[in-house]
Design a protein that fits this description.
With 194 residues, the chain is α/β, with parallel strands linked by helices. It has one domain: Maf protein (Alpha-Beta Complex), CATH 3.90.950. The chain is built from six helices and seven strands; from the N terminus they run E-H-E-H-E-E-H-E-E-H-E-H-H. A hairpin with a 3-residue loop joins strand 5 and strand 6. The protein is globular and about 55 Å long.
């Protein structure tokens, strides 16, 4: 039996991030960071998501000094503008109208406290949806806690025509980059513990 290792703590309340890690057999604890997630004046989208991922990991590391702490952040970017989580149904509908029939970027950054951060960008193309379809989707409630007002792995998948790049990054956690950072931190993955 290999020696035990410090636990992995996910500095995010995202059930999607948790599920992606758990499907790989990685045991974890969830302890979300609660930070100001506003974009700073003049801050580029990639720098913004990397900063938030890093700040989340560092904030939670302070509460779990012996753990490996993983933070992440995802933003939808269209026309150079970061679309965060909508604050209302009207804002969700406005975001979806803006994305309809167009290609946008989804940027997800992942960070391990004390190790570093990586950002992965994927391009997502939306079908040209009718206003009735968008209104119906907003009425499901799913868009209200999602960056850019949609979930590719949920009902919102009906809007997505094509993804170029990492599917797991669009869901909220780029797995290849996450595993590389965990290895860099000295965290042994389940298949490395036998």
């Amino acid at each position: 039996m290999p020696p035990s290792q410090p636990p992995l703590v996910l500095a995010s309340a995202s059930p999607r991030r948790r599920a992606l890690l758990e499907q790989l057999g990685i045991p974890l604890r969830v302890d979300p960071a609660h930070l100001d997630e506003n974009v700073r004046a003049g801050e580029a989208a990639e720098r913004y998501v990397e900063r938030l991922a890093r700040e989340k990991a560092e904030a939670v590391q302070a509460r779990h000094p012996n753990a490996t702490v993983l933070g992440a952040d995802t933003s939808v970017v269209v026309d150079g503008v970061v679309l965060g989580k909508p604050g209302s149904e009207d804002e969700a509908l406005s975001m979806l109208r803006r994305l309809s029939g167009r290609t946008h970027e989804v940027m997800t950054a992942v960070a391990v406290a004390g190790v570093g951060a990586r950002c992965v960008t994927a391009e997502v193309s939306f079908t040209a949806a009718t206003d009735a379809a968008l209104r119906w989707y907003v009425s499901t409630g799913e868009p209200l806690d999602k960056a850019g007002a949609y979930a590719v792995q949920g009902i919102g998948g009906f809007l997505v025509e094509r993804i170029e790049g990492s599917h797991s990054a669009v869901v909220g956690l780029p797995l290849v980059e996450t595993l590389a950072l965990l290895r860099e931190a000295g965290y042994r993955l389940p298949w490395e513990q036998r």
